Amino acid sequence: MTTSAAVAARIEQQPREAAPFVKWAGGKGRLLSQLRPLLPAGIARMRHVEPFVGGGALFFARLPERALLTDINPALVATYAAIRDDVQSVIEGLRALATRHSKESYYQVRERYNQGRRLSTSKRAAMFIYLNKTCFNGLHRVNRKGEFNVPVGSYKDPRILNENGLYAASHALRGAKLECSGFESLLEKAKPGDFVYFDPPYEPVSDTASFTAYARGGFSREDQTRLRDVYRALDRRGCKLMLSNSDVPVIRKLYLDFRIDTVAAPRAINCNAKKRGNVIELVVRNY
Ligand SMILES: C[S@@+](CC[C@H](N)C(=O)[O-])C[C@H]1O[C@@H](n2cnc3c(N)ncnc32)[C@H](O)[C@@H]1O
After folding, report:
1. What is the CATH number of the domain that holds 142?
2. pLDDT per position in the chain (287 positions), as tens?
3. Which partner from 25, 252, 255, 285 sits 20 to 30 angstroms from 225, CA to CA?
4. Ligand 1 geometric centre to CA of 6 (Å)
């Protein structure tokens, strides 16, 4: 068997299960059991469209045959493409990085990643995953020059390489079109009959947080309104739409014309007892 045939066989052998290959802020992993019952009837035949794909928890849980996945983060989208198109090189690059992981090595890799315009796509993807798995809290933050600037995390033994997980992700992505674009590109791309799941940066819950761009994840109140306008346009086009956001009056008002349900998102473990428990989030649907 040639090497590429062996890789194809590894990809094919994976159980039909996949999961996000990065930790991502706002990841929907903990909400999947509540989101699944809210999917539209006949979803198996629909194309799956996610304009804020992030870690892609719902996409990987569903494993649709056809998908359009987009995000505004170019490094994230390039990593998805490398996993779909050349997973073996990504795995080899990541294995090399995992073997020599240390605090010092983290900062060297971060420096090379930020400077290395001539790195191959698969090397960049391996570095992106390595930095995501070993940085502080799996954060993705860049400075004004676009340089990744998150410090190293304090994990004892981080799981950097999950080979089978990457093969499974590669398999899941075979039928996926990937694009780096803002959500408004859906006005050109979405087709009648598509299922579209919107998971934007959430509107902040507290008023004090709401004035800082950082708390908003760079997504302003105007962006929330423009997103609602895209939602309306795709509703008229005949797409099936589901959207997550925080349960705040401004979001309820924007989607007044649509069906709104709530789900209870478990909070991350918190040493402050008052901050334990669930947070209520909205799910807005047009069906
Ligand atoms: C809450 S996260 C999505 C989480 C994802 N559902 C998951 O399970 O991991 C929001 C994503 O929206 C992306 N984003 C922010 N502004 C955007 C915009 N204007 N257009 C498209 N994507 C955007 C961010 O890069 C981020 O990946």
Report:
1. 3.40.50.150
2. 666 788 777 777 765 789 999 999 999 999 999 999 999 999 999 999 999 999 999 999 999 999 999 999 999 999 999 999 999 999 999 999 999 999 999 999 999 999 987 899 999 999 999 999 999 988 999 998 889 999 999 988 899 999 999 999 999 999 999 999 999 999 999 999 999 999 999 999 876 654 555 555 689 999 999 999 999 999 999 999 999 999 999 999 999 999 999 999 887 655 565 666 789 999 999 99
3. 25
4. 35
**Ligand 1 contacts CB of residue 130 (under 6 A):** no
* Ligand 1, atom 20, residue with closest C-alpha: 182
d(CA 274, CA 235): 40
As given in the structure block, the two tokens for residue 15 are: 């159980």
Tell me which residue range forms the domain holding 45: 3-285
User: Number of folded domains in the chain?
Assistant: 1
Cα of 224 vs centre of ligand 1, distance in Å, is 13
Is the overall model pTM greater than 0.85, yes or no?
A: yes
CA nearest ligand 1 atom 23, residue: 72
Residue among 67, 122, 86 at smallest CA distance from 11: 86
